[in-house]
Amino acid sequence: MLDLFHLVLQIAVILVAARLVGFLFQKIHQPQVMGEMVAGILLGPSLLGWLAPGVSAALFPPASLSYLNALSQVGLVVFMFVVGLALNPSDLHGYGHAAVLTSHVSIVAPFCLGGLTALYLYPRLSDDGVTFTGFALFMGAAMSITAFPVLARILTERGLLRSRMGTMAIACAAVDDVTGWCILAYIVVLVRVTHAARPAWVTIAGSLAYVLIMVFVVRRILPAFEREFRKRDRLSDNLVAVIVVLVLVSALATEWLGIHLLFGAFLMGAIMPKTPEFTHYLLHKFESVTVVLLLPLFFAFTGLRTRIGVGGGRAIWFYSAIVIVVAITGKLGGSMFAARLAGMPWREAASLGILMNTRGLMELVILNIGLDIGVISPAMFSIMVLMALVTTFMTTPLLEWVYPTRLLRAQMDEVHKNVA
Amino acid sequence: MVKNNLVAAYLLLVGMPVLGLLGILEAGRGIPAPPSISGDWALEFDPAAPCANGPASLRQPALSISQSGTEALITMNDGHATTLEATIDGTTLTAKWLTASIAGKLGARTLEGKMHFDGCAPVAFRAVRQAPKKRGE
Question: Does some domain include residue B136?
Answer without folding.
Answer: no
